[in-house]
Design brief:
Radius of gyration: 21 Å
Largest sheet: none
Number of strands: 0
Strand content: under 5%
Length: 242
């Protein structure tokens, strides 16, 4: 929570120039400064409360977290060279979108592992990215096996959805560190929520291609969830060795 508050306080691109003139732009900056100060105050308060709750002889875990973050960062760099190429098919479909989305998650989060707001956040982000790499492996295997991720019936849609929900629950049950697995699975859970929202907007007769994005989201949730226990084990091992 402390690192999240600091990250919010230092968030970039908070204010954009207003079309309403200088006064509104100044007001926008004033609001951004007040918001950043509030997040900074929250971080300081949480840090003070946490520190006060610790016994006087409590040691620091920062060095262990930093070491584990470096270990995970090294593992991620090794995995980077094993990624499948970015899809370039002229006929872009669910399979291409699936690999593209998972690759984007890896590329977007890679720097936060080593340059994030703190070592604890780096461990969480590193574990999340290891799970995403595992998800890419699983997705690519399903593609190689001929799966097209396209449905023709409502029953098939519900099967993809239920598979995603089951995978999320199983990942929590099988992970060696449940709090860490919950953090890793947050994005995967949102993929299910997003797919449900997309399907809820549809009405009447629906072409199968209009369901493609929802199916891809369910598969993303499934593959990440199934790769999470192994990623969590890797993080726990890195922490134990620190």
């Amino acid at each position: 929570m402390i690192e999240e508050a600091l990250e919010q306080a230092t968030e970039e691109d908070r204010v954009h120039t207003s079309h309403g003139g200088t006064l509104l732009t100044i007001a926008g900056w004033g609001e951004a400064i007040e918001t950043a100060q509030a997040h900074l105050d929250d971080a300081r308060y949480l840090d003070a409360q946490y520190t006060a709750s610790l016994p006087s002889d409590t040691g620091s875990v920062e060095s262990a977290l930093r070491s584990a973050r470096e270990t995970l960062g090294t593992a991620l760099r090794e995995r980077q060279s094993q990624l499948p190429p970015e899809p370039t098919a002229d006929d872009w479909g669910p399979r291409e979108e699936l690999i593209h989305d998972l690759r984007w998650r890896v590329d977007d989060g890679r720097e936060t592992v080593v340059a994030g707001v703190g070592p604890a956040a780096g461990v969480v982000d590193g574990t999340r990215l290891l799970a995403t790499h595992g998800a890419i492996d699983r997705a690519q295997q399903r593609i190689d096996d001929g799966e097209r991720f396209r449905v023709e019936s409502a029953e098939a849609v519900m099967e993809y959805r239920q598979t995603a929900l089951d995978a999320l629950q199983t990942a929590l049950a099988e992970s060696s560190a449940t709090p860490l697995s919950r953090a890793v699975l947050s994005d995967a859970s949102y993929s299910v929520v997003s797919a449900d929202w997309e399907l809820g907007r549809l009405d009447g007769t629906v072409r199968p291609t209009r369901i493609d994005d929802a199916i891809v989201s369910y598969v993303i949730a499934t593959t990440i969830a199934r790769a999470t226990p192994a990623a969590v084990d890797r993080a726990v091992e890195a922490l134990g060795a620190a």
